[in-house]
Amino acid sequence: MGKMTSGERLFQLVNNTLLLILCLVTLYPFLYVLFASLSEADRLVQHRGLLMYPLGFSFQAYELVFNNPMLIRGYLNTLFYVVVGTAFNIFMTALGAYGLSRQSLMLKNPIMMMIVFTMFFGGGLIPTYLLVSELGMLNSRWALIIPSAISTYNLIIMRTAFQGISVHLEEAAKIDGANDYTILFRLILPLSLPVIAVMVLFYGVSHWNSWFTALVYLRDRDLFPLQLVLREILITSSTDAMTTDVQGMDKAGISEVIKYAMIIVSTVPILFLYPFLQKYFVKGVLIGAVKG
Amino acid sequence: MSASTSVPRERVARRYRQPSYARRLWRDIRINRHVYIMLLPVVAYYLIFHYGPIYGVQIAFKAFSPTRGFLGSPWVGFDYFKDFFNSYYFGRLLKNTLLLSLYELLFAFPAAVVLALLLNEVRRSSFKRLVQTVTYLPHFISIVIISGMLIDFLSRDGLVNQLLTWTGREPAAFLSDPAWFRTVYIASGIWQNVGWGSIIYLAAISAIDPTLYEAAKVDGAGRFRQVLNVTIPGILPTVIIMLILQIGSFMAVGTDKILLLYNSSTYETADVIGTYVYRRGILDSDFSYSAAVGLFNSVINFALLILANRLSRRYTETKLW
Lengths: 292, 321
What we know:
The complex is a heterodimer. Chain A is mainly α. Chain A is built from 14 helices and no strands. Helices cover about 75% and strands about 0% of the residues of chain A. Chain B contains 17 helices and no strands. The longest helix of chain B has about 35 residues, at about 90-120. Chain B is flat, with a radius of gyration of 27 Å. The model of chain B has no long low-confidence stretch (mean pLDDT about 90).
């Protein structure tokens, strides 16, 4: 790399320090939440300022969280939305991406234009709500899966990836008697595993994190996804149901640690998957970016 | 290609008469029928769930009653739009929507570019990867949790106020004082998305021809000069594309986060068109009126996008379409 002048060395130092501070600022809130969730409730309430380690050590908050039937329901519901929803997303997006990656298709460009237009203009919340309700999907699980079957952005990413696969492979398969279904499901999809991984990440995370559609379309609390349960507890602060059993303890303190434990419990799956998928998603963003 | 231009046009046409468009299409559909069958559910999805609502937007011009349906409700023209323009809320909602978007453009948008530039100057790749891993992370955390953490840290007795009093400053009512809402909204947005937003610029930087840096070095340019004269011009097209896209969603500020963070004491600065549509439409079932408000929002947004694209095409040769 050659020698650095002292000015450059100073620049490096300032730059690295800035980035290190950014990392700390990004990470610390999560560490605080983690430490607080493991702390003893009465000690946490007394405490002022930053936490550098848990105050005492207690799994009580986690026990209360995991004994809460609403949260368990929410977890299971979200699991359903993530698994079924993402599978449906991938299936529909792959169909569209395959068709639109066929160079020779005469209707390719008109269909593409029709799809891209929807990225920039839409009917808005109310007409969509009325449509979903007309279709009888109000207060049903389908409302969270079917109306968001395809994200146009993801469709474009997948189409770009499919276009990158050599046509010679497909021609060879065609000569061997393969039809389009075989080509898509036996040839293209297995060859596109990285982009499929990206799509699973994007769609999966959006199902996992989704709450607004559920807020709009669902009335029945048994169908609520985790995020909607979290909203009630974190935003509208109703931990009373969980603290009624707790006796002889500081209620305020307990509901504080419960909040922290809930944040951890509902973030862990993402944190756990993140390192495995990280190498793929940068690639995904880049494929999407190439086409603008 | 060049060979065919030398043959007179009429003779080519006589020899290979092009079949009509309809005939060619029919042939195409027959040959590619499986592909068209695959596209059928996709097209149906877009027609129903994207064009359906666009068709349904007509209720903004009708006194919609659910019992009479889309077609049966009587037309009222622009009445709902007039109501909205004349209402007390119009100015406030427009101002809040525009200001939040503008601040996002002024602060959050450049932040990602700056982070990418800083990251690019990091020599040690393990440190660079660490910073990237950490700063991308909050993008994947749900907005409910982020808002929950914000409410917790920024409450009257929360961590931030504890630290403020500890350093001898006055505690602030971050979440109930309208003066603080925009700062909280924008700053937390940067915190959550700056890393993720920088990915695309890092990619653009890595696509810059390395010989340009060599040439700059030969000309005696230091690191800073190189950034100024090579890196920034190199990523400018990407920055402009992102800018157009950003302007294209100017009116669509993150309704999600506002709904979670605002309360009646901060409506004054926090209430935007999107959240107002939700309250009037979904909570109060005021369908036609809120559809009109929503349509107003989408139309302005679409117009801004076209304008941004046109300006960019004229002045920078970079364009979305």
